[in-house]
Amino acid sequence: MKQLRLPSVKCACVWHILQTGLIITFLAALAPVSGFTQQTPAAGATAAPQSFPLTDIAAISVAGGKAEPAEYLGRKAVRLTSPSEDSDIFAYVNGSAIQDGIIEVELAVKITTPPGVRMPGFTGIAFRARSDGSHYDMFYLRPRNAVADDQAMRNHSLQYVAKPGYDWYPLRRQWPWIYESWADLKPETWTHVKIELHGRSARLFLNGSDSPSLVVNGLKGEDLSGGVALWGYPGEESYFCNLRVTPQKSLSIRNGGEAAGIWRVTFASDYGKFQGTVELHREGKTISGAWSGDFGKDLNVSGTWRDGYVELTFMGNWQEDANATPVPAAATLAGWIDGDSAAGRMKVEGRADGQWTAVRQTSVPMRK
Fold first, then answer.
1. What is the pTM of this model?
2. For the ranges 127-141, 208-222, 305-319, 349-363, which has the lowest average pLDDT?
3. Cis amide prior to 328 (ω within 30 degrees)
């Protein structure tokens, strides 16, 4: 059977911590972006709304496929297709620009793969995108998954990804169910999509609902502003029409938060609240330091830094109650630093999940 290539592009208990035994991994997006100057609107500035009917391809620049005017289910639209099984389609909407605000569009997908080949239907909207497709955040839909008999597949109806580095596979393996969800979708019909952008958060709404179908806090894309792009996949026809981009007053945030410093961290999990202090030093792309708190004292921290995004690990201990034997467990933390505060998501593998916040206590000079 032909294997489908998925697209590139988610108690009130007290923990007692004893001796060394727990592996904790931090993935903290500590935000400076190097080598790229963003065209970010001035603080407080709001651009005029932009409308793109998408009844022709005059405003579209395509990479990896073909865009053409078409009609689908009674609506004039832009159709994206790809003749290659190895290339998805990125169609940048020239002149689009947004940092914070609302993106609305109508989209549909028609499956063209032969019977017997599973194809969920991949169609999405990229935002804060660079025109060459090298960087963007994106929501995309898998409509056929929404009606699958397998509940796990149903839970993969909606997906968030970011390029480069945060495709669906690493996000699903590392953060199950956080960056995807189920939604009431119907294959091969028009779906109204609305995306609300607010700082480092995005919410996806479908078909006029007041309740978001997917919420992402801590967008992983490197850019705070950019354009909008249409996205499709081989083995199908993706249709788009009536794109509207409505910029709003942007939050006064910027990339460039420094990792080096002493941070007071609070982890508010579904199993309880935990706290600790971590002292971090950065030398180029290398992070080192020490953690003291609920997971142990003076624990060695090591990790890497990539354009402001860091991965940190340290050994600590875990004990569920006073009579239990401490056991090792992996924990992960991801998020952004904005000035002297930070926030994101944290998990202890198989044991707890929740959100973390941090406040810088003192600064530590970056090592040269």
1. 0.85
2. 305-319
3. no
